[in-house]
Design a protein that fits this description.
Blueprint lengths: L17 H10 L8 H6 L5 E4 L6 H10 L3 E4 L7 H14 L3 E3 L7 H11 L6 E9 L27 H12 L2 E9 L9 E8 L4 E7 L5 E8 L2 E6 L5 E6 L15 E4 L5 H14 L8 H20 L3 E2 L2
Parallel strand pairs: 1-2, 2-3, 4-7
Antiparallel strand pairs: 4-8, 5-6, 5-12, 6-7, 8-9, 9-10, 10-11
Length: 316
C-alpha cells in the first residue's frame, strides 16, 4: 500500500517475526521498531493499521485508543461480541476513528448493487447466496497463528466468510437465526470449510459457503422481487443484473436479457485505507458502520455456537 495514495503513508512497523519482514519493510521504506508500544508512544504517528492475530485485536485496539491513535483493524474486529463491544467502547471513549477492514464494500461492483437496491431496481431482498473460497489452507505452516483452532472458530468464516456475511447484513438487515456445518478437508488442527444458512428479520434468507481448502472463487448473488444482481470472480470484477419476467412463459421458461459490467483492476485495500484517512482528516464516520460490525459479531457468535451444537441458534 505504501505510495499508492497521497492520503496516507506508513512510517513505522512492528512484527513478531521481524526476520521474515526485514527485506519487505526495507524495500518499502518502513523502518521496523522493537515493540507495538514504541509505535503508540510516537507523537508523529496519527493512526495504526492492525493486521495481527484476531485474538490480539481487543487489547491492541484498547491500547491504541488510550494512546489517542486512530485504528484500522483487519476483519474480524475480534472473535466474539463481548470483546468487540469493549474495543468499540474504548475507541468511542477516546474519540478516535475505529475502522474495520471490510474492503469489499468499496468495490465498484458492490457500490453499484448498493445503488440499485437503494433506488428500488431490485425490489425487496428475497434471498442471497454467497461462495468465497481459496486454496490457502495447504500453505499454512502448523505453527502459524492462522492454523490455531482458537483463531478460526467457525472454520473458514474468519478467513473469508465474514466478507459475505457483511454484505448480507448491509443489504438485508439484521439476522434472526443461523444453522452452520463445518468440516475439515485438509488434515490440520482447524476446520477449513463452512456452510451457513441464515434467516433475517425481514423475512429474507441467506446461504454462505466458504472454504480455504479448494480452488479460489467468489460469487455473491442477491435475489430481489424485481430482479437479481450477481457479483463474481475472485476480484469481484464481473457484475450482472437480470430483471424478473414481465409476462408468463408460453413455452420454455427463459430469463430476460441480462446486463453485464466489468470492473477490473480496482484496488480495494487502497480504497479502504484512503477512506480511513479521510474519516480522520475530515472528522466524518468511516463508511462501514460500526453497528453493522457489532451485529456481525453477534451473528458470528451464533454461527460458532450452531457449528458446535448442530442446532439452529438465535442471534442475540
Amino acid at each position: 500500500m505504501q505510495g499508492k495514495s497521497a492520503e496516507f503513508s506508513f512510517v513505522r512497523g512492528h512484527t513478531r517475526t521481524r526476520a521474515s519482514a526485514h527485506d519487505f519493510s526495507r524495500a518499502h521504506g518502513v523502518p521496523l521498531v522493537d515493540s507495538y508500544e514504541q509505535i503508540l508512544a510516537d507523537p508523529e504517528i496519527d493512526a495504526v493499521v492492525l493486521a495481527t492475530p484476531h485474538s490480539l485485536h481487543e487489547s491492541q485496539i484498547v491500547a491504541a485508543a488510550a494512546a489517542g491513535k486512530h485504528i484500522h483493524v483487519e476483519k474480524p474486529i475480534t472473535l466474539d461480541r463481548a470483546t468487540a463491544d469493549r474495543a468499540v467502547a474504548a475507541a468511542r471513549k477516546a474519540g478516535v476513528v475505529l475502522a474495520v477492514g471490510y474492503c469489499r464494500r468499496f468495490h465498484p461492483s458492490v457500490v453499484e448493487v448498493r445503488r440499485r437496491l437503494a433506488q428500488g431496481w431490485l425490489g425487496r431482498v428475497v434471498a442471497m447466496v454467497a461462495q468465497h473460497t481459496t486454496s490457502t489452507a495447504q500453505f499454512i505452516a502448523p505453527d502459524n497463528w492462522r492454523a490455531a483452532p482458537e483463531e478460526a472458530p467457525g472454520g473458514a468464516m474468519t478467513a473469508v466468510g465474514v466478507h459475505a456475511l457483511d454484505h448480507m447484513i448491509e443489504f438485508a438487515g439484521r439476522v434472526r437465526d443461523v444453522r452452520c456445518v463445518t468440516t475439515r478437508a485438509i488434515p490440520s488442527l482447524s476446520d477449513d470449510t463452512t456452510t451457513v444458512m441464515l434467516r433475517f428479520e425481514s423475512g429474507a434468507t441467506g446461504l454462505i459457503f466458504c472454504s480455504v481448502a479448494t480452488a479460489t472463487n467468489f460469487s455473491f448473488t442477491l435475489y430481489g422481487s424485481k430482479g437479481l444482481a450477481e457479483i463474481s470472480r475472485p476480484n469481484l470484477q464481473a457484475l450482472r443484473f437480470v430483471p424478473t419476467s414481465d409476462a408468463p412463459p408460453t413455452g420454455a421458461v427463459l430469463a430476460p436479457p441480462d446486463e453485464r459490467h466489468e470492473h477490473a483492476g480496482f484496488d480495494m485495500l487502497s480504497a479502504e485505507l484512503t477512506a480511513f484517512a479521510r474519516a480522520i482528516r475530515e472528522r466524518k464516520p468511516y463508511p462501514v458502520p460500526i453497528e453493522d460490525v457489532l451485529h456481525g459479531m453477534s451473528v458470528f457468535d451464533a454461527i460458532v455456537q450452531a457449528a458446535r451444537s448442530d442446532q439452529i441458534v438465535k442471534v442475540e
